[in-house]
Specification:
8-stranded mixed sheet, 6-stranded antiparallel sheet, VC0802-like, binds magnesium ion, single chain, binds aspartic acid, about 425 residues, Carbamate kinase, alpha/beta
Length: about 425
C-alpha cells in the first residue's frame, strides 16, 4: 500500500519550511506520492501576471515573470548545492521559457485559456525545487509532470477530469516507479486537456489532485498537511473560541464546504468517499499531533456546532409583474436562467408571487442576472449581506451569532440553520 501526502503553499513558503518537512517524509514507512502546490502566494502572483498579459501590458507581465523566476532561483540556491542545484535550475529555466511563451501568446479574448497556460507554471516550479531537495537529502523520488496523467476537457480554470483515461495513465506511469521503490513527487491543481493545452482545476485544487491520485492508485490514506492543527469547527480568522474536530464524516465535510467553508477543496471528498480512503488533516509544524480524521463513519457522532460564514452576499427578490403566482412553471424558468448564467443559488425561498434568492455578489454576474430577470419580473436587491450556516446548532449559539443583526431570511431544519443577515438591527 502507498500513501498520498499533499503539501500546500504555506508548508513550502520558505526554504526553512521546506526543510522542516523532511522528518515527516523520513518517518513515513509506506511508499509515498507527494502532491505539491505552488510556493507560498505564487499563484496570486501568477494571476497578477495574467491580468497584465491579457490587458496587453506584456512588458510589465514579463518583468513580473522575471522577478518570480528569480525568487525561485534564490529559493533553490538557499537549499541546494552542486548537481542538485544545477538540476533544479535547468528545470526552472525551461519552465521560465514556457511561462514567457505563454505571456507572449496571452490575450484578453482568450482569458481563461491564457490564465491556465500561465498559472500552471507555479506548481511545476515548486516541485522542481522540492524534488531536487529530496534527492539531495537522500530520498528516492521521481519527479512527474502531472499533466501527463490528469487528462481533462477544456473548461479552462475549472477543468473536468476524464477519469478513466487519467486512471489508466496513473497506473501505467506511476505504478512502475512505486514498485521499483521510488516515491513520487508531482503537482497538484493542474492537468492537460485533450487538445494538448495546460489546464487548472480551480483555485486550491491540489487537495483534489491528491484525492484523485489516491483513488486511482488505491492508497491507504491521504494526508493534507496544513498550518493549523486539523479541521476546526469555524474559521479562526472570523470566530474566536474555535475547537478542533477529532473525527468527522465525509458527509459533514462535504456539507460544510458546500456552504462555503474554505477547509478543503469541495471536489476532494467524492473520490475518497467512493474508494473508502481516510483523509487526515495534520499540522506540518507539529506532526506529532493527531490532527483530524475524515472517513465514512466515525465513532462519536457528537459534533460541536459547525459554523460557516459566507460574506458578500446579495439577496434578490423577484416578483411577478402581473400578480400571477410563482408556480412550478415560473420556478423552472427562473432556475433555467440561473443555470444558463452559471450562478449558484446559496439560499432560496418562494412565496405567492415572489421568489427570493441569495447569491454571491460578483457584480458582473449579478448585473447580467438582473438584466435577464427584469425581462419578465420585477427585481429588488438587498446588498452587503452575510450568510451564516450552523450545522448542529443550539439555540444559544444561534442567538449569540445573530445578536443585534438584521435578519433578512432564516431557514431551519433539524440539523442546520441558515441565516442571511446584514448590519446591525
Ligand atoms: N496553487 C493553487 C492555488 O493556490 C492550488 C493550490 O494551492 O491548491 O490555488
Ligand atoms: Mg496554493
Amino acid at each position: 500500500m502507498m500513501q498520498v501526502y499533499k503539501f500546500g503553499g504555506a508548508s513550502i513558503a520558505t526554504p526553512e519550511r521546506m526543510r522542516q518537512l523532511l522528518p515527516i517524509i523520513q518517518q513515513t514507512k509506506e511508499p509515498l506520492v507527494i502532491v505539491v502546490s505552488a510556493l507560498g502566494k505564487t499563484t496570486n502572483a501568477l494571476e497578477d501576471i495574467v491580468s497584465h498579459a491579457c490587458l496587453g501590458e506584456k512588458e510589465e507581465a514579463l518583468k513580473l515573470a522575471t522577478d518570480l523566476i528569480d525568487n525561485h532561483i534564490n529559493f533553490a540556491s538557499v537549499l541546494l548545492v552542486d548537481v542538485y542545484k544545477s538540476q533544479a535550475k535547468e528545470k526552472i529555466i525551461s519552465f521560465s521559457d514556457e511561462l514567457k511563451a505563454a505571456i507572449g501568446k496571452a490575450s484578453g479574448s482568450k482569458y481563461d485559456f491564457s490564465y491556465d497556460q500561465i498559472v500552471c507554471i507555479g506548481e511545476l516550479l515548486s516541485t522542481a525545487i522540492f524534488n531536487a531537495f529530496l534527492l539531495q537529502e537522500g530520498f528516492p523520488f521521481q519527479w512527474v509532470d502531472v499533466r501527463s496523467i490528469i487528462s481533462t476537457d477544456d473548461t479552462f480554470r475549472d477543468a473536468r477530469v476524464l477519469w478513466k483515461v487519467s486512471e489508466k495513465k496513473a497506473k501505467e506511469i506511476l505504478q512502475p516507479f512505486l514498485l521499483s521503490g521510488k516515491n513520487i513527487i508531482t503537482q497538484g491543481f493542474i492537468g492537460r486537456s485533450d487538445s494538448g493545452a495546460s489546464v487548472t482545476l480551480g483555485r486550491e485544487g491540489s487537495d483534489y489532485t491528491a484525492a484523485m491520485l489516491a483513488a486511482m492508485l488505491g492508497a491507504s490514506a491521504v494526508t493534507i498537511w496544513k498550518d493549523v492543527e486539523g479541521l476546526l469547527n469555524a474559521d479562526p480568522k472570523l470566530f474566536s473560541n474555535t475547537v478542533k474536530i477529532e473525527a468527522i464524516t465525509y458527509h459533514e465535510v462535504i456539507e460544510m464546504s458546500y456552504y462555503g467553508a474554505q477547509v478543503i477543496h469541495p471536489k476532494t471528498i467524492k473520490p475518497l468517499q467512493n474508494s473508502k480512503i481516510p483523509l487526515y488533516v495534520k499540522c506540518f509544524l507539529k506532526p506529532e499531533l493527531k490532527g483530524t480524521i475524515i472517513q465514512n463513519e466515525v465513532d462519536s457522532m457528537f459534533y460541536p456546532p459547525l459554523i460557516v460564514l459566507k460574506k458578500n452576499q446579495i439577496l434578490l427578490q423577484v416578483t411577478t409583474r402581473d400578480f400571477s403566482f410563482v408556480t412550478e412553471d415560473n420556478l423552472r424558468h427562473l432556475y433555467g436562467i440561473f443555470h444558463e448564467l452559471k450562478i449558484k443559488v446559496n439560499l432560496i425561498q418562494n412565496a405567492a408571487i415572489s421568489f427570493v434568492a441569495c447569491i454571491d455578489h460578483a457584480e458582473d454576474k449579478v448585473h447580467a442576472l438582473i438584466n435577464r430577470l427584469s425581462e419578465d419580473y420585477r427585481v429588488f436587491r438587498n446588498e452587503n449581506a452575510e450568510l451564516l450556516t450552523i450545522r448542529h446548532y443550539t439555540p444559544e449559539v444561534l442567538q449569540d451569532l445573530t445578536r443585534r443583526r438584521f435578519i433578512l431570511l432564516e431557514q431551519k431544519t433539524r440539523h442546520t440553520v441558515q441565516v442571511l443577515m446584514s448590519g446591525q438591527s
